[in-house]
Amino acid sequence: MLLKVLICLTFTLSYPMLAYPEGLNDYLKKAAMNNPGLKAEYKEFEQAMLELPKAKSWHDPKLSFGYFIDPVETRVGAQRASLFLSQTFPWFGTFSIKGDVAEEKALALFEKFIQSRNEVFFKVKKVYYELLKLHQTIIFQKQQLEIYNDILKLVSNKDDYGKEQQLDILRIQLKIDELLTQIKDNENKRPSLHFAFMCLLNDKKIKINYDENHLEKPDSTLINQIYTIQGNPMFSMIEHQENKAKALKKLAVKNGLPDLGISFAYIFTEKREDAPNLEHNGRDAILPMLSLSIPIYRKKYKAQKKQADLMFDQWKLEKKDLMNRLNTKKYRCIYEINSAWDNFRLYSKKYPAVMNMAKLQKELYLNSNQNYIEWQRLQEKALEYLLYELKARKMFWTCHAEIQFLTGHDSSKFLSEEQINWQQKK
Question: How far does the signal peptide extend, from start to end residue (predicted)?
């Protein structure tokens, strides 16, 4: 039953419709379906599921044949050959516990698969936001380049062309060269990021529609959300590992109990020629037998129980360590997402103010041919604040994505209601 349910659970995934920019959900779905690392982990999970029927299967019966080189003479004839059929049975309840061990192992691997899937989601979001930030950075730098090109034309076309204007033209040309270098550098970054994005999705033809996708403004309602790490799939994985350790201890006790055996022997008997009228002459013999193993060597069973205890203690410590690590990362992310929100608010206010100052300074410069350096300083500040705001947006959404990864947000969203109910019963 577990095998059927888990197959349905995996192949009827429904992906979360979160507040992502348009298109990101499609990328997440493609990554979940195509990422080779996830496929490999799912293959491991499928292998573990196939351990369930193996764990609960009976031992194969044994059939043996014997031939008497020197026939055994009996009253009804000489025994020529024998055929033995035997079947052994473990102690009552052993198969059930073996099934529990295999089942807990499979469920632990499934949770590990979900955790890896969530990690891939986080990596996709992180690279995606970085690509959007890089694209918008290039757009802003090109807009700045146009501003400098325009003012270069205005200064060059002035009638009162003197040494001060020559210095201004040189300053403008140097700034244009600087912007061109920055744009080229950012353009060179794009292929490596796009390749990383392509590898996560395992799709060489993937393209991002930058016209319809951009970094959204941070959502202040997300800052005050209560984040709990208990939803992380690794906690469920550790719980299944603990259950597996408990089952292994019970199995060690069962292994220390006798195995039962039933066998039948069929002995072929040859008729006596010297007594043709003998009753039951040449009658074959049938011998039913019962057997019982005697587990007197107890060291291996004690070692199995001790091993199960140590395994249980190990996962208790792993759980504590996981909680400490996740909480450390969570509080770091909470600080960073608050910092990103504060920076976004700050620079979204400073940018319009500096831009207005730059426009006024530009008019003063064009009218009086003075204070070009002040205009350039204000223009540089405007771009700086704009890029800081963009960086804050990217940081906000990246931190939010990491918090979702740490808290297992995506793993709780993609299951259908029926599958969630089944998981809660488990």
Answer: 1-19
